[in-house]
Specification:
Among the domains are: 38-142; 261-381, Immunoglobulins (Immunoglobulin-like, Sandwich), CATH 2.60.40; 401-469; 483-604, Immunoglobulin-like (Sandwich). Helices cover 31% and strands 18% of the residues. The protein contains 16 helices and 19 strands. The radius of gyration is 31 Å and the shape is globular. The termini are far apart.
Length: 605
């Protein structure tokens, strides 16, 4: 096998005739050829294959060396004579397995028959019932995408095969074939009973079938999900999962003389990721020393993402704007040779990971204290809830990448009255699938009105981004005096991470509420002195069967501004103008039982 590999083309360089980028540094007079061999291998005995030696070619199909099997297969196909068909059919029918459980000669015989145009229905049926899963898989791949193929899939129950690769290929064949009522029934039975949600490929294989034929089955599956969504009331808070005691912070150390850089915070978005969901990382670096770090001095970061047998390293050497004493800066970019990108990671494996950041490992910056330049954060990548929901999400994501906007609006209308979990899943899929480079999107007047109503009823950052991209709402235009406040929920502590903040009378304010907890929360700003009244009114809404639909926000004049319920891993941006009257305005979570602990104060002065 030949491997021709070129380095990626840096910006500003052109490709040459061999597709490598052109540079004066390239050496055109030398080259390297590597031969990798096993020094304890038995003495090599060369083979000689000829299209005139048919028996030699057929025997080579049984070689234990893939190289010779592939060449024999090629030469038999190029020979173009079907006189070997009966012998090849016998090889496919041979049910023996090798030491790793496959029948390699049978696989090559199958593809030779396919290449000769001699693969008949009987041979296919023999292969589809073969004890070798690899041969069953190859038989599916060799089949035509027609009604007969679908009939054979059902006859041999390949959607329920014990081998996941066979199931995946059966689904892919189904996605390219005409689906009759029997096939549709079999597909949905398999999907509704699927438990392999952690499999890397099966969710996407199910999604391929859902999106085929204009998304016909996807629409039916969405209707099924709506019909079978959870209708139970929102459960009461389980306080046993929360840490109710105050967390004692260490006493701040005395400021050191000189520069003293620390990683003050590692933030990820989304805050509660699922597998196959990429996280973007922001590293906050604070200079807690007494001296400024001068501009044009890089702040080098070594970042490692590690866990579940995986390890990825990135380097950031991008920030050089300087850090004043007491100042905190945010770093989001990495560097890879001449390329700059976002610090981001992802994984296909459910589990816990460690994200670590080290500042200036090579000692480029003269610091007063080098013992506090390291920080790490634990990140849990969650398992998708179930195959039905995950396959629908993957299908909608794919559908959103090609569908016209009115079709996507129709999906949002369809789930407008769904529970919050299903609604958020659909919004996530559409927002990740939409091509944001699309310009001049045209909305029907009725669709635009509907989308605008979503923005005020139960919006989140993903939906906000879609509404802006589709032209349903204008992109936020922060004014010079806009006050941006970021508030997170503290996981298992029933608290906001920000207890108070100050704004000016009449100042535009934007609160970004990020829910990093394992349950829903909101944020409600009240008139001065009204925290208890509004909080108790929220408690009383537990008895209201529509309390969750109302986001547990009481309909009281004492409520000034509020977010909807924000689900775990989601965020919501609340924009408003601060009251003109100076005073202390409480903010609370009005989810029943939360307000006594989960509160803070907005000072207007």
């Amino acid at each position: 096998s030949y491997i021709i590999q070129h380095n990626p083309v840096p910006k500003g360089f052109d490709n040459g005739s061999g597709n490598a980028y052109q540079t004066d540094l390239r050496d055109f007079t030398h080259g390297r050829i590597y031969r990798v061999g096993y020094k304890y291998a038995p003495t090599y005995i060369p083979k000689s294959l000829s299209s005139y030696d048919v028996n030699g070619l057929l025997n080579a199909l049984r070689s234990d060396n893939l190289f010779w099997r592939m060449h024999a297969q090629r030469m038999l196909v190029e020979r173009g004579n079907k006189d070997v068909a009966s012998y090849l059919q016998g090889m496919v029918a041979d049910k023996s397995l090798d030491e790793i459980g496959i029948n390699a000669p049978g696989i090559h015989a199958l593809w030779t028959l396919q290449g000769l145009g001699a693969l008949d229905n009987n041979t296919l049926e023999v292969a589809l019932a073969h004890p070798s899963a690899a041969l069953r898989k190859n038989a599916i791949q060799a089949m035509s995408t027609d009604a007969n193929a679908v009939s054979l899939l059902l006859k041999y129950n390949l959607l329920n095969d014990a081998d996941p690769l066979v199931v995946m290929n059966a689904l892919l064949l189904l996605s390219k074939s005409p689906i009759n009522d029997d096939a549709e029934k079999a597909f949905f039975e398999r999907l509704h009973n699927a438990s392999e949600v952690e499999d890397r490929w099966l969710p996407d294989a199910f999604a391929c079938v859902l999106t085929a034929n204009g998304g016909k089955l996807m629409k039916k599956h969405l209707a099924y999900q709506l019909q079978h969504q959870s209708t139970s009331k929102t459960p009461a808070m389980d306080h046993s999962m929360h840490q109710m005691n105050n967390t004692t912070s260490p006493e701040p150390k005395k400021q050191v003389e000189g520069i003293d850089l620390i990683v003050s915070e590692i933030k990820i978005d989304p805050s509660s990721p699922a597998v196959r969901e990429r996280i973007n990382v922001t590293v906050n670096v604070k200079n807690q020393g007494s001296s400024d770090l001068a501009a044009d001095k890089f702040v080098p970061l070594d970042i490692r993402f590690e866990g579940m047998g995986l390890k990825f390293d990135q380097v950031s050497r991008n920030f050089k704007e300087g850090i004043k004493a007491g100042e905190t800066v945010s770093i989001t970019k990495n560097i890879n040779g001449p390329w700059v990108g976002n610090i981001s990671f992802g994984t296909d494996i459910v589990g816990d990971y460690r994200l670590s950041v080290a500042i200036d490992k090579s000692n480029e910056i003269k610091e007063a204290n080098k013992n506090n330049n390291y920080a790490e954060k634990k990140i849990s990548f969650a398992r998708p809830p179930d195959m039905n929901a995950f396959a629908l999400e993957r299908a909608l994501r794919s559908f959103a990448s090609v569908a016209p906007v009115d079709s996507l609006v129709a999906v949002l209308k369809n789930v407008n009255n769904a529970n919050l979990v299903l609604k958020n899943s659909v919004v996530k899929a559409l927002s990740e699938g939409w091509n944001y480079q699309m310009k001049n999107v045209v909305l029907k007047a009725t669709d635009k009105s509907f989308l605008q109503s979503l923005q005020t009823a139960n919006s989140n950052d993903r939906l906000q981004r879609l509404l802006v991209a589709w032209g349903a709402i204008a992109a936020p235009k922060p004014t010079g005096d806009l006050k941006i406040i970021r508030i997170k929920t503290i996981r298992e502590a029933m608290k906001y991470d920000l207890k108070e903040f100050t704004v000016s009378p009449g100042q535009p304010v934007q609160i970004i509420l990020e829910n990093t907890d394992a349950m829903q929360h909101n944020l409600v700003i009240t008139k001065p002195g009204m925290r208890e009244k509004v909080g108790k009114a929220g408690d009383a809404m537990m008895k209201d069967e529509k309390g969750a639909e109302k986001n547990y926000v009481p309909s009281l004049p004492e409520v000034l501004y509020s977010t909807p319920l924000v689900s775990p891993g989601q965020s919501f941006t609340l924009t408003f103008k601060a009251p003109a009257k100076v005073g202390d305005y409480p903010y609370v979570c009005t989810f029943p039982g939360h307000w006594t602990l989960m509160n803070g104060m907005m000072h207007v002065k």
